[in-house]
Amino acid sequence: MNRVYIKKAAILVTTAVVLSAAYLVGKSLLKPKVSVDVSELEIKLPTGLNSVKIGSSQKAVIKALGQPKQIAAYSSQANYKEGTVLNYNGAKFIFIHDKLTNFEITSHKYRVGLASTHKYSSIGSLKSDLPHFKIQDKTAFLDVTNEDSTTDQYLEYDLNDNGQVTKISYADY
Hints:
Blueprint: H1 2-30, E1 35-37, E2 41-44, H2 58-65, E3 70-76, E4 81-88, E5 91-96, E6 99-105, E7 111-114, E8 119-121, E9 134-136, E10 139-145, E11 153-159, E12 165-172
Parallel strand pairs: 1-10
Antiparallel strand pairs: 2-7, 3-4, 4-5, 5-6, 6-12, 7-8, 9-10, 10-11, 11-12
């Protein structure tokens, strides 16, 4: 009788440990994602095979997204940075020293996502379609990190009253 009791107790303890571990793992996976490495961010056209990442050259962006409507000088008085901006219909891509540093998208023509998930969002996507980002008021955002980050970096999705994405931007402040 003692052996049966010990065996049942061992099974109950093992089950409790397994269920507790599964609960904790599940809870951590469902938490809002609070940061992602900058190398994970991708921008592409819905039909395009090439993607663009932060740090890409102007030539790489033009190859992936086509010829811009306008190429202009860029100057940020706040950060004392000068560079170039590629203006497309519904998108701006800012380059400092020929490296993509910031973007702003307002057209459904472009997709933004995380390389590891291959899930992309665009203008018009619903809040529920976004990865588990932090949501505050009408903005879904994700802190972006890199190995030598000296600035604050964010991927932001502006949302309208219906929870649809109206603007996607990335900035290193």
